[in-house]
């Protein structure tokens, strides 16, 4: 099974749109992150190097675009149609990263969503769309999501979608200034033969 890497792409379902992140998104992205700073701080990736900091917005987008050009990442923002707007509003970010080809055919996925839109099915829908694209269009075999054990909202996303809990990874990533434990969840294409999005939309959920 295999596919071809095409970028940029836009994915949409039920008014939720995944589209590539852009340099001109800086103002909207910065405002959204600022409004959610307390909500996101406990899960924020950090730089373990002494005195190390995170890239600014332009550096982040440049790095993500470079990774996409190398077929190793899909850098999306999550947007949603809302009444009174002529275009979808940004409500979060989703990045498929660490794409490995060859005999592995796998990737990792990370996401965050505006606190004011949490619990509305946006994150599960976005994760399902991105996973289906990786399985069906890129020909990947496995999607992995690593989550802090204390991150209840993200844990509910993978639980709703049926990602398999593969266990504990001590001190796995540098988060919010320290090496933090994570739990790993994964899904392979054989587990969702009809597609993850179809499964998510078909099953009742609250």
UniProtKB/TrEMBL annotation:
Gene3D superfamilies: 3.40.630.30. GO terms for molecular function: protein-N-terminal-alanine acetyltransferase activity. It holds the Pfam family Acetyltransf_3. Keywords: Acyltransferase, Transferase. One of its GO terms (cellular component) is cytoplasm. Residues 16-190 form the N-acetyltransferase domain. The keyword Disulfide bond does not apply. PANTHER family: [RIBOSOMAL PROTEIN US5]-ALANINE N-ACETYLTRANSFERASE (PTHR43792:SF8), GNAT FAMILY, PUTATIVE (AFU_ORTHOLOGUE AFUA_3G00765)-RELATED-RELATED (PTHR43792). Belongs to the acetyltransferase family. RimJ subfamily. This is N-acetyltransferase.
């Amino acid at each position: 099974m295999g596919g071809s890497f095409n970028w940029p792409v836009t994915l949409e379902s039920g008014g939720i749109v995944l589209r590539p992140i852009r340099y001109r998104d800086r103002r909207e992205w910065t405002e959204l992150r600022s409004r959610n700073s307390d909500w996101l701080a406990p899960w924020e990736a950090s730089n373990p190097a002494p005195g190390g900091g995170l890239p600014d917005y332009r550096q982040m987008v440049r790095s993500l675009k470079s990774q996409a050009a190398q077929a190793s990442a899909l850098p999306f923002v999550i947007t949603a149609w809302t009444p009174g707007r002529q275009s979808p509003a940004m409500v979060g970010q989703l990045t498929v990263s660490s794409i490995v080809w060859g005999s592995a055919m796998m990737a990792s996925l990370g996401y965050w969503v505006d606190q004011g839109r949490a619990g509305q099915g946006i994150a599960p829908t976005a994760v399902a769309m991105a996973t289906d694209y990786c399985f069906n269009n890129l020909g990947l075999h496995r999607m992995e999501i690593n989550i802090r054990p204390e991150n209840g909202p993200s844990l509910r996303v993978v639980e709703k979608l049926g990602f398999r809990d593969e266990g504990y990874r001590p001190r796995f990533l540098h988060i919010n200034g320290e090496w933090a434990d994570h739990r790993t969840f994964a899904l392979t294409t054989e587990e969702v033969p009809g597609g993850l999005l179809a499964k998510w939309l078909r099953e009742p959920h609250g």
